[in-house]
Specification:
homodimer, alpha/beta, 17 helices, 14% strand, elongated
Chain lengths: 402, 402
């Protein structure tokens, strides 16, 4: 665990993926992230994948290196404790509704410099999820060979919203350090999705053309990029984004003359123009299909690597988990043998921060907490609660212990 | 444009998507982001979608609200100017190689507190792209109905890496404000991808089970979620993540008794268990298919909305662009009529920051710069270059003007 954010404490009241991932990224960089959960866990506490004992491998990986306080949030007194914790730290990440007992206005009473980051569905408060905003902005109608829509399996909008929420949190903290002012950053999944469509040119494209982009299967729009199959049946993705990669790909496949013939026949030059390579794919793709189908994957891999051509065979997740470069020998991962404190008791490689900072030590990944594991430490330490008062709340069923 | 990051200046030398999007997010929150590009533009300067005049709608949306300095980066003197700019500001975002004239070590000479954020392909410096890391970690083998792999069209890894890079930048800046120390944050696409597989439980899942998750088409793993078709032929995604949503969905479809019969026959209760709803989908899905196929989309929409059931019909990107709630009436977007300064001259709705901060004014989105538009302002202002020296560099072809 890096110490980049050492000294920063924040309360996280959240579930599902976006909001917990924002907290995870902060915890992995050394912030103290205190999850406050319903006693027994929130709505995602048993989300699949689970072990045979119904312990969530999803939850325990999205909540590594955090602390856990368990409260009865259906009870007014439990809610007041959560509010007091938010006010005591001054930083809050949540996906609870914008109105109600966790509204920024309510929480900022008595803590005017509070920074809140709130992941939402729609900006107006209506519920939405990754899978529904994705439909709303059109990607499933562009994905796969068609004609049916294809959902992507990666929860990309949740993940993007989570990373952006972590960024917005630090942005508001930076502003506060200059101005002294708090504030609330609202990150609706719907705005992340439609804003991204705009950022990558999609709104401009369909507005200017009045029509949708053609559906391309595994080919990449506007570039030379597609999946091909080698003589030994390996399906591999090849993508070209620089003049050098194009030149080396054509040379590696001994297609220099054949490509020149197309250029001559069509009065174009592919050397420096991604768009032309895409526009003339009707002529180029069959040529490359044949050349790649005539060679083995090992043979082509070596030639492509030597020329800096970007390629990757399709693999399964199990293949990926067993890949030494990606996992076993990757400093991002820690061993986590013998469960190493995982609430599930399961043993498997655990990830630390994506980022590598050569100037800093990367300590091993830490486990997720058990529900309520840090209730006593946090309530007595942060809120100055007496041990008698703490015991009373536990006895009353308002506080849970790990 | 929000002013959250006012006072922060950074140099961006970058192309493609991840690194420019990190700069975009900073610029949209008020940072001064100065792109330094090859004269005439880098490798992504004409990336599709493009206008009839080959102006990139992609580039001009990923680079809004930034400044542009154009240099001949193939010439030692052009490279020195870029190095001087990085040292003058102290913050740098790039996807240039970790070694060479833009290595952190080289740049930190004379600016020991420099903060660098570098998006990479593989962590060891080998090239990789969104489309190839995606294959490497297994998502295309889980996407679509099978058996062929399906690439997702959304460049999700680039986008996630970009948002995370912006977060890491602010993290290093926060650390520097406490310790005075600079450093380099390296964000390899490969680590973002495999780290995410781990974060959402995928590495644990395949390691513990020894096998890959089944391929589910448009159904969601571990939840009740799938696409269904209404009586009037509308395909819509429905996802349930809370007990209340389940109860209301079942009631809206008048399936209370039929679901109770399955629960009774199988000795389970679906009321509070996402996993059971998924495990028994063989019984549940046909029931819901028939109930939904018997009702119109308008009828079901109203019932679902009343019950807080999360659903969304599949739409195209053109549908999304024409949706008033998503674009025209959405404060994230600005009108950008009459081109409004877009380098392409095209008119279309332009996005500002995803985040909404109720406490701050959201000024209209700003256009991307023309290549070299701010060369004079930045070189004379930031580097204190005399007008004579500036003119000499322009005459020598080392600096480009917008």
């Amino acid at each position: 665990m890096y110490d980049m954010l050492a000294g920063l404490s924040l309360i996280e009241a959240s579930s599902f993926m976006a909001s917990p991932s924002a907290g995870l990224y902060c915890a992995q960089l050394g912030a103290e992230v205190i999850r406050v959960d319903q006693i027994g866990g929130g709505p995602d506490y048993h989300r699949w994948p689970v072990t045979d004992d119904n312990a969530s491998l999803y939850w325990e990986n999205l909540n590594r290196a955090k602390k856990s306080v368990a409260l009865d949030l259906s009870h007014p007194q439990g809610r007041e404790v959560l509010q007091a914790l938010v006010r005591a730290t001054g930083q809050f990440i949540t996906n609870f509704p914008a109105e109600g007992f966790l509204s920024h206005e309510v929480l900022a009473e008595g803590r005017p410099d509070l920074v809140t980051v709130r992941v939402m569905g729609w900006a107006d408060g209506r519920p939405a999820l990754d899978y529904t905003v994705n439909n709303s902005v059109g990607f499933p109608m562009l994905t796969g060979p068609g004609p049916e829509p294809v959902n992507h399996v990666l929860p990309a909008w949740d993940l993007l919203a989570g990373a952006y929420a972590a960024f917005a949190l630090l942005g508001l903290i930076q502003r506060r350090s200059v101005t002294g002012l708090g504030g609330e950053a609202r990150v609706p999944l719907s705005d992340v999705a439609i804003g991204t469509v705009a950022n990558i040119g999609g709104i401009a494209e369909v507005t200017c053309s009045g029509e949708n982009r053609p559906r391309l299967g595994n080919a990449v729009y506007g570039l030379f990029g597609r999946d091909f199959v080698t003589s030994d049946g390996v399906r591999t993705m090849i993508v070209v984004v620089t003049p050098r990669q194009w030149k080396n790909l054509v040379a590696a496949l001994s297609l220099t003359e054949a490509v020149a013939a197309i250029e001559s026949a069509r009065s174009v030059s592919f050397a420096k123009d991604d768009g032309l390579r895409f526009a003339h794919r009707d002529a180029l793709f069959p040529l490359f299909e044949r050349a790649i189908a005539a060679r083995s994957h090992a043979d082509l891999s070596a030639a492509f690597d030597a020329g800096g051509v970007v390629h990757s065979e399709y693999r399964t997740m199990l293949d990926a988990a067993n890949d030494p470069a990606l996992v076993r020998d990757n400093p991002v991962f820690g061993a986590m043998q013998d469960g190493a404190g995982n609430p599930s008791g399961a043993s498997y490689p655990a990830a630390g921060a994506f980022v590598t900072v050569p100037q800093l030590d990367r300590a091993p990944p830490r486990p997720a907490p058990r529900n309520g594991q840090h209730s006593e430490e946090v309530l007595t330490g942060r809120l100055g609660m007496s041990s008698g008062e703490f015991a009373r709340l536990v006895d009353a069923g308002l506080v849970g212990l790990g």
